[in-house]
Design goal:
Blueprint lengths: L2 H24 L12 H6 L8 H9 L3 H7 L1 H22 L10 H18 L13
Helix pairs in contact: 1-5, 3-4, 4-5
Length: 135
């Protein structure tokens, strides 16, 4: 992939992300009743690692961090990591530099393990694990 096409792709993704943020910030109220149901939760009754992520990001956009953390703690904790990774990607798209930690196998394994542990723990039907279930 050429440098120009990589920069164009990142620009398009960034504009789409900004448009999504603005949509959720100004169109969706913080305590919107209608959010699409998680198909995994509907079928199994279990919470997938993504359950509550949409509500968490809307709450973050409105500055309601406790509500965001209650909806999906993992998404809130990983959001700064993903934003930092995107910034590094934009920075390295202009230069031909060595890839950073986010492209390592070790980092991918840590994230996958965290997602698996989070999924298992948030589905344990005992207090305090029930606090990890989304609203």
């Amino acid at each position: 992939m050429s440098l120009q096409s990589k920069i164009l792709g990142l620009f398009i993704i960034s504009v789409a992300a900004l448009a999504t943020v603005l949509l959720y910030l100004y169109v969706y109220p913080l305590y919107q009743v209608y959010f699409p149901k998680c198909m995994f939760h509907t079928v199994t009754g279990l919470h997938c690692p993504g359950c509550g992520t949409q509500r968490a990001f809307v709450a973050l956009l409105h500055g309601d961090i406790p509500n965001a953390m209650h909806n999906n703690l993992l998404a809130v904790l990983l959001a700064p990591v993903l934003l930092y990774s995107l910034l590094l990607e934009l920075q390295t798209a202009q230069k031909r530099t060595q890839k950073h930690l986010f492209y390592s196998v070790k980092f991918a394994r840590i994230i996958i393990l965290a997602v698996i542990v989070f999924t298992v723990v948030r589905n344990i039907p005992l207090y305090p694990f029930t606090l990890l279930a989304p609203l």
